[in-house]
Write a structure and sequence with these properties.
Chain lengths: 164, 476
């Protein structure tokens, strides 16, 4: 196992030591007071280095998968299940068309044959990284924002906003 | 006898009522939503639906903007009906004003024909703000829209219209409503070769009445990946390449939106181990008898006992064996392992095309990828499933809790360690798996954050969209 994080910390330490060694070589001979200053600097640097390591969130990473600890409720899925409750709106003609559910990258994942006035309950599975779904029926199209809730109430009817 | 007479009388009465009633297209605005009525192909131009004092009957009516700067018909407030297959009769409606002030206030009713020619049926000047009922005779047949225009000068009067009734039948196409403003064309009869009620242009099977739509997961031209460790109940090296299978499912539905057939396209991309593992799929929502037939399986040995319908015998739920020996489907081209060691020749797999026909249409068959699992090294009673997916009836549950496994049938915890680590992953993409022996957390640098946050952070850990997401040197 070669955890990258450990390699990174090691590299930082080596760099700091290397700089200090160079300073010693160039200054110790001519300026004795500088020796004290450098000793203090070494102390400060060492303390600082130790502190960085303790607070570095990366150091809390496990060294291997087997050291990982996950919550019992976590199912390790990279996708989420959503149930869309489509609420129809009354129209004068019950022409049926596919209600199409698309992912944000254009993949059609569900087609449901229905009239605009019909209600429907539609289950879909969507990658957890996705933020939206696109629902269309005929020329109507609307984007749904995916949130924490697995239940989505959906209608094509937009709220009336314009007051004349 | 009495009952029969009563039934006949009722039927005749109903028939007379039907014959005596002329079809009407009506609008009472009681939806209270202009946008909802626009979806119903009514057009509102500088008019809205309002309640309270603006209603005439019920709670809502159409109300115009102020009829103050519109002394003529050049730019009136308008309400336009959907296309109506009109029959001779009367257009009726009620109207009033919110107030009568300023200059003249007018209401016109027009017919619009298919060529957009208009005929004025009524020109009315309001003499009071009170409710008036209108009956406008119309003696035409064919496709027409009815337009109500409200206009005037000065003051702040608004026109109100309610309870519109037009003789004829609704003839607009609500599916063709660009910008959802109600401008729907006349409905055209659809072409439907198989007569299933799904028009040919949207029917994926226009000549097969038993099928209508393909429903692909993850998409028509995409694959997701299943990645397994195969040493359960012991932990492995967590390179998640002991079996790597790409999958795409297709639930084929009929016009009633019930699933009639499930298709699976599977491709074995890697086998980074020495065990000869079988592969199968359990459908937790289907029983064995729900399956009519299965084609496309790659079975050569005796690992599975297959029933006549292609399911595994002795199972309550439908279990579809895919292959018993991976050598049936992969083609090795030298080197150790199969597509997990960098620098070795790249092997290839046959594409497995499973076709699972259902005995009868089902409203739901579960969610792809359902419950796929491997059978460890030809030992039928040792199954390895995705986390928290239940074993089949033929799994030896006595192995639960042994080795590193911490499954608990009582709590529904399956195929997880005490630290809740899985033996398999379902990745929502074509997963580029780690090379042989390399821990997944070293290849995918956000994986730990994703897991420790229970899937909240870095939901795209398996992508390569940002710098710092992965160490390509450790990924095959």
């Amino acid at each position: 196992m070669k955890p990258i994080t450990q390699t990174s910390i090691k590299f930082k330490k080596e760099n700091k030591v290397s700089i200090l060694e160079n300073n010693n070589k160039s200054s110790m001979k001519n300026h004795p007071f500088k020796t004290l200053f450098l000793a203090l600097l070494i102390g400060l640097t060492a303390t600082s280095c130790q502190k960085d390591e303790e607070n570095d969130p990366v150091s809390s990473r496990p060294n291997s998968f087997s050291e990982l600890r996950a919550d019992n409720s976590f199912n390790w899925s990279t996708a989420e299940n959503y149930t869309i409750h489509y609420k129809g709106t009354p129209v004068g003609m019950a022409v049926k068309k596919p209600l199409t559910i698309q992912t944000e990258d254009g993949k059609v994942i569900r087609q449901v044959n229905l009239a605009l006035s019909e209600n429907a309950v539609i289950d879909v599975r969507v990658p957890s990284k996705n933020e939206t779904l696109v629902v269309s029926w005929g020329t109507h199209q609307k984007t749904i924002a995916l949130g924490a809730s697995s239940t989505i109430d959906f209608t094509f009817v937009e709220p009336d906003t314009e007051e004349l | 006898m009495y009952t029969m007479k009563k039934l006949i009388l009722s039927t005749i009465t109903a028939a007379l009522v039907t014959v005596g009633t002329t079809a009407q297209v009506t609008q009472d605005f009681e939806s209270g939503s202009r946008n909802a009525e626009r979806l119903n192909c009514w057009q509102f131009w500088s008019t809205s639906i309002n309640g309270g004092n603006n209603s005439i009957n019920g709670q809502f009516a159409m109300r115009s903007g102020q009829m103050s700067n519109m002394p003529n018909q050049q730019n009136p407030h308008r309400l336009i009906s959907p296309w109506v297959d009109m029959t001779p009769g009367n257009i009726t409606f009620d109207s009033k004003l919110t107030a009568l002030n300023g200059g003249g206030k007018y209401l016109d009713v027009l017919l619009i024909d298919e060529n957009n020619n208009t005929t004025t049926l009524l020109q009315h000047q309001y003499s009071s703000a009170s409710v008036q009922s209108f009956t406008v005779p119309v003696n035409v047949s064919g496709y027409y829209q009815v337009e109500f225009q409200l206009y005037g000068s000065g003051g702040n009067s608004r026109g109100i219209i309610d309870d519109v009734s037009i003789p004829g039948t609704y003839a607009a196409d609500p599916s063709n409503n660009p910008n959802s403003v109600g401008q729907c064309p006349i409905f055209q009869t659809i072409a439907d070769a198989d007569g299933d009620g799904v028009e040919d242009s949207s029917d994926d099977y226009p000549n097969d009445a038993s099928k209508a739509y393909n429903n692909y997961m993850p998409g028509a031209n995409a694959f997701n990946t299943l990645a397994y460790e195969d040493l359960w109940p012991s932990q492995g090296d967590y390179d998640f390449n002991d079996l790597v299978v790409d999958y795409r499912f297709n639930e084929i539905t009929n016009a009633a939106n019930n699933v009639v057939q499930i298709e699976a396209t599977l491709y074995v991309r890697a086998i980074g181990g020495a065990l000869s593992n079988g592969f199968a799929i359990q459908f937790d929502n289907l029983t064995s008898s729900d399956i009519a037939s299965v084609t496309g399986q790659e079975i050569t040995g005796n690992l599975f006992t297959i029933s006549g319908n292609g399911t595994e015998a002795g199972q309550t739920n439908a279990v579809i064996p895919v292959y018993d020996d991976p050598e049936n489907v992969i083609n090795r081209v030298g080197g150790s392992m199969y597509n997990t060691v960098d620098g070795n020749p790249t092997g290839f797999s046959d594409t497995i095309n499973l076709v699972i026909a259902l005995s009868s249409p089902k409203a739901s068959v579960g969610t792809a990828p359902y419950n796929p699992f491997i059978i460890k090294d030809q030992q039928r009673d040792i199954e390895i499933h995705l986390a928290d997916k239940a074993p089949t009836d033929l799994a030896n549950t006595a192995l639960f809790g042994t080795g590193n496994d911490d499954s608990n049938v009582g709590t529904g915890k399956y195929y997880k360690t005490e630290n809740n680590l899985p033996w398999a992953l379902d990745v929502s993409s074509t997963f580029e798996y780690p090379i042989e022996g390399e821990d997944i957390i070293d290849g995918y640098l956000k994986f730990v954050d994703w897991a420790q946050s229970s899937g909240v952070n870095f939901t795209d850990w398996y992508t390569n969209t940002s710098a710092g997401y992965r160490n390509n040197a450790l990924i095959y």
